[in-house]
Amino acid sequence: MVQANHSDTATPATSRRSAPQTLAHHAAATVGNLQKMQPVAGPLFGSPLDSRYTFESFVEGSSNRVALAAAKTIAEAGAGAVRFNPLFIHSTVGLGKTHLLQAIATAAIQSARAPRVVYLTAEYFMWRFATAIRDNDALSLKETLRNIDLLVIDDMQFLQGKSIQHEFCHLLNMLLDSAKQVVVAADRAPWELESLDPRVRSRLQGGVAIEMEGPDYEMRLEILKRRLEVARLDDSSLDIPANILSHVARNITASGRELEGAFNQLLFRLSFEPQLSIERVDELLGHLVNAGEPRRVRIEDIQRVVAKHYNVSRQELVSNRRTRVIVKPRQIAMYLAKTLTPRSFRKSAAVLADAITPRFCMPCARSRI
After folding, report:
1. Nearest partner of 333 among 345, 320, 321, judged by Cα
2. How much is the mean pLDDT over the chain?
3. In the chain, fewer beta carbons within 10 Å around the N or the C end?
4. Domains and CATH numbers, the chain
5. What angle, rounded to 10 degrees, do the helices at 256-270 and 217-234 form?
6. CA distances (Å), 61 to each of 96, 118, 196, in order?
7. Residue 40 has pLDDT above 80, yes or no
8. Please, are residues 63 and 212 in contact by the beta-carbon 8 Å criterion?
9. Model confidence band, residue 161 (pLDDT cutoffs 50, 70, 90)
C-alpha cells in the first residue's frame, strides 16, 4: 500500500492521465475475450447464423425500407405481428435477403421473449428431412418443428421433391393456423415459383410479399463507407479516398455483392499500390465497373415493367382473368417475352397465365416484326 502511494506521487501527470485509458483498453479487451468465449445463442436448430448479419449492420435505403420495417416488427413483436404472416421477401441475388432474414432470427433470439427460433435454408430443410426419414426419426423432427415460435427459411426457390414439399406444406399450415410467425425469402415472388406445389404457393401468397430492389447511389456509397469502417478496425491506417469510393458506388450498380467484391479487390491492391487513380480503378474493376455485357432479361423483369406501366399487379397479369384491362398488358408481356427471351409464345403464355388459350397468342404473332 505504501509503495503504491509512493508510486502515485512520483508518477508524472501525463502518466496518471494515461492510466484510465490503459485500464479502459484492458477492460475492452477482457469484454472482447468474454464475447468470444460466450457466443450469442443460436437458433433451436438449422443453419448457423452469421454474427455480422444484424439490423445494426444492415444499410437502409429506399429500395429496402419497407422490408426492413416489416422485419423489425416481426423480430420485436413476435406473435403480435401476425398481420405479416407469412412474410415473403423476394429479390434478385445480392440485395440483402439473407442478411435481413438472419437479422430477424438474431434479434428474436436475443429478445426478452426468448422465442423458439428455427433458421434454415431450403436445402438444409430438404437434407434434414431426408436424413430423418433415413434414420426413422421423421416423427421426432416434425414434433420439434411444430413447437417453434418463429420459422425463418431462405432460398425457397430450391425446395424440391414432392414428398419434401408435402411435408413443408403440412408444417406451414400448422404454424400459420397456430399463429406462429413464418418468414420466407426467395429470388422471385411466390406466384412465380413454378416448381413449388400449388398448395405451398397459395399459402405463401396469403401473407405479405415485399420486393427488395437494387440499391441507389447513396445506399451503395453508404455500403462502401461502412465496409471501410469495419476494415479500419483491423488496420487504422487504412484509407480509401472519397473520390474512389464515390466512383465505385456510381459505376457498380447491380448489387451489394458486387460492391463487396470491388471493395475487397481495392483493399488487396492498396496493400502494394497505395496511390490508386480513377483510371487504375477502372482497369482493376473492369469486369464490374461499366461492364459491357448487357444483363439477361427475365420474364419476371418483363412482368414487373409491364404491370407497372399499365397500373396492374403482377398477380393480375399471371391470373386467368380475361378482362380488357388485363388482356392487353398480358399480350404485350407475352410479345416482349418472345422477343427478349429464348422462350416460345406458348411457353411465355404458360408462364404468364395457366388459363391462357392459344388464341391469345395470335395478336402477338401478328405483331411480330
Report:
1. 345
2. 77
3. C
4. 65-211 (3.40.50.300), 217-284 (1.10.8), 299-366 (no CATH)
5. 40
6. 12, 28, 31
7. no
8. yes
9. confident
